[in-house]
Write the structure tokens for this entry.
Amino acid sequence: MRIGAHVRQDTDPLGTAHRLGADIIQMFVTDPQDWKKPETHPQAAALRESGIDVVVHSSYRINVASLNNRLRMPSRKAVVDQAAAAAELGAVGLVVHGGHLRDGEDAALGYENWRKLFERQADKGGFPVPILIENTAGGDHAMARTLDEIARLWDAVGDFDTAGFCLDTCHAWAGGEELLGLVERIQAITGRIDLLHLNNSRDDFDSGRDRHANLESGHIDPDVLIAVLEAAGAPAILETPAEGIAADLDYLRAARG
Ligand SMILES: [Zn+2]
């Protein structure tokens, strides 16, 4: 099982990976807050040859479910561009949040938009890396907060082999899903969990808030996080506060013996 962390893309991600002893790193390929097209990363070749796995997290503004053309269209383009950049890094996938709609909008149309993302790309030969759809913590109109929503999403995208799933433990907890047995419940829907975002939560169960904590310092029992990791058998990325990541990795290594 490969374990690592989200690292900064702009300050020597490979060096950070070596310092942390990470088997896998997650990084952005462009400023996550804007729509800029990614450029080739200066460490792309070195990362491909490093033996360290890479996964790319897409930028935050992306919402492929949106019924608003002016948000959905740049979102689709950004997913395509960032998937290409991920392939350049030899990445195992591109993480994309499930997204959300606005008050009064029909969820069925949001799921249809997810399906269209894969359909349109299938016409062009498909995505070069799996698109790992991540569960989110909050909002009343999320596409992938609850198991019911994930089931609707998978009805829409489950036929495409490049549609994968990324389970974030903080988001599931804050989104009101019990963590024990969750891996099995999700696998029963999706047939796969490709990646774990292993994070504790600064907030209570079902708070709807997305504030990650280091493994031993949040509201989730760290033993439960280990149980999720063992059950998923997927690579795990820490998205915990940077100052505690080395200690989080030590904790994981010790807990797994
Ligand atoms: Zn996450």
About this structure: The beta strands are 3-6, 24-27, 53-57, 94-97, 131-134, 163-168, 195-197, 200-201, 212-213, 236-238. The chain has nine helices and ten strands. The radius of gyration is 17 Å.
